[in-house]
Amino acid sequence: MKDCAAFSPPAIALAATVVVVAVGLTMVAWYWFLAPNGSVEVLGQPALVRKGDYYEACIAVRNSGRDAVAVYGLEVEGVKCSVESGDSIKPGESLVIEARCSINPDPGTSVVRGVLLTSQGSYPVVLALV
After folding, report:
1. 97 burial class (0-12, 13-18, 19+ CB within 10 angstroms)?
2. pLDDT in tens, the chain (130 residues)
3. Sign of the C-alpha dihedral, residues 19, 25, 27, 29?
4. How far apart are CA 48 and CA 15, in angstroms?
5. Is residue 129 within 8 Å of residue 111, measured between CB atoms?
6. Region label for 28, one of left (φ > 0), alpha (ψ between -120 and 50) or beta (otherwise)
């Protein structure tokens, strides 16, 4: 009976190559067929429009993935906003998200940072104050 040291280097290299290829194919199969894949793409410049005593955020988004994406909320400068158009965005479709925000930006501020919360993750947005 041969011991382990008797295996030839080409046989070991071939076995390692087969294992690496199998792991790679498993990862590709997971990514393409099993993992959820919804992706939000922000269109144009998101805006925060003053409406009396509150601001209304308007963000146009498109689902560029292959799974539907649900919009759960919007946070602007750490403040949760009330999303009025909380529909699901089907693959390839666009939607304008409108949210009511009770924030008080500093005078002279032209942009504020926010986070769009969806079923496929969080997306940072920069909103222009109008």
Report:
1. buried
2. 555 566 778 888 888 899 999 888 888 777 666 656 778 889 999 999 999 889 999 999 999 888 889 998 999 998 999 887 667 899 889 999 999 999 988 888 899 999 999 988 899 999 999 8
3. negative
4. 59
5. yes
6. alpha
Distance from chain centroid for Cα 8: 48
Question: 40-51 and 121-129 as β-strands: parallel, antiparallel, unpaired?
Answer: parallel
93, 75 contact by CB (below 8 A): no
Rounded-to-integer distance, Cα 87 and Cα 49, Å: 21
Nearest to 69 by CA among 24, 39, 113: 39
State the amino acid at position 46 in one-letter form.
P
Measure the CA–CA gap between 72 and 83, rounded to whole angstroms: 8
- DSSP line for 64-126: -SSS-EEEEEEEETTEEEEES---EE-TT-EEEEEEEE---PPTT--EEEEEEEETTEEEEEE
79-83 and 111-118: which strand pairing?
Answer: unpaired
